[in-house]
Design brief:
There is one protein chain. It is built from four helices and 16 strands. A hairpin with a 4-residue loop joins strand 13 and strand 14. It has about 280 residues and is an alpha+beta fold. It has a six-stranded mixed sheet with strand order 1-9-8-3-4-5, covered by helices on one side. The protein is elongated.
């Protein structure tokens, strides 16, 4: 009898295709998603059927003669719960649960009502990582201004957006002119009055967000501290010394003891006795 009722519902859906497209439902991996079965006013439900339409078509839950059933073989077996209002809850969500779903309702007068919903499951946003890069000036003294590049990255995740916030000020928004690589990199110019100013990188998706905060002036101070050298300073010392050693080696080879006509004769005289007195 239950099989006949299921086929009758599918037949009703084919003959009376009154379809309503529902809103998108968003969920997070490890959480839950509630697919709400909406109905027209005065629609008294007699039977219902929930199905997954994409990426694979599967039977998920049914309601026949006051009985709720969810023990159907599908990828949601053991994770689907049909509530008394015929809304379907899926938990815990997995990354592959995104897709399209439909619910077919039939009232006591035999009228059908079909609703489709789209579920999108997102990963939880991890804490981002922020690196500070300093554009070092050529002066030995600490600069009055410090040009900073802040690089933000959230590992192993997609479908996220990057934004920046200047902490401790009324205007928290960052001007777009200082943003590069779709918000991954922020360029700011700091002065002595910005010693305590912190910047936060915010990564988010529709269901979660996280942030990391840095105080870039501290990196400017470390870069300008005694004993700290920029890569430019290192090159100014290493390159001349390396050139000097190369030239000294070439000069020693050219002006060695056996170079020149006279020195060659001396070297030849030193070698000749050895050739004239063979071993007995």
């Amino acid at each position: 009898m239950a099989v006949w009722s299921l086929w009758s519902l599918l037949l009703w859906e084919a003959l009376l295709p009154f379809v309503v497209t529902g809103a998108q439902v968003q969920g997070q991996v490890g959480g839950s998603a509630l697919l709400v079965a909406e109905r027209p006013p005065g629609f008294q439900i007699r039977e219902a059927i929930w199905r997954s339409l994409w990426p694979s078509e599967e039977l998920l839950a049914t309601f026949f003669r006051g009985s709720l059933e969810t023990l159907y073989h599908s990828r949601f077996l053991g994770r689907a719960q049909l509530h008394g209002n015929l809304s379907l809850e899926l938990r815990p969500l997995e990354s592959g649960d995104s897709g399209n779903f439909s619910v077919l309702l039939v009232d006591k007068e035999g009228r059908s009502w079909t609703q489709t919903l789209q579920l999108k499951v997102y990963d939880a946003v991890p804490r981002p990582e922020v690196q500070v890069f300093i554009a070092v000036s050529g002066d030995a003294q600490p600069p009055k201004t410090c040009q900073v590049f802040l690089s933000c990255w959230a590992p192993n995740i997609s479908d996220i957006t990057y934004s920046w916030r200047r902490e401790g000020t009324i205007d928290l928004d960052i001007k777009p002119g200082g943003l590069f690589m779709d918000g991954h990199v922020l360029s700011v110019s700091l002065g002595p009055g910005d010693k305590g100013v912190a910047y936060s990188c915010i990564v988010s998706n529709p269901v979660s967000w996280d942030l990391a905060t840095v105080t870039p002036w501290e990196s400017c101070h470390r870069q300008a501290a005694p004993g700290m050298a920029s890569y430019k300073d290192v090159l100014l010392v290493v390159v001349p010394v390396l050139l000097f050693l190369i030239l000294a080696g070439l000069s020693a080879w050219h002006w060695g003891p056996c170079s020149g006509k006279k020195k060659k004769d001396v070297c030849a005289d030193e070698v000749a006795p050895e050739t004239e007195n063979p071993l007995v």
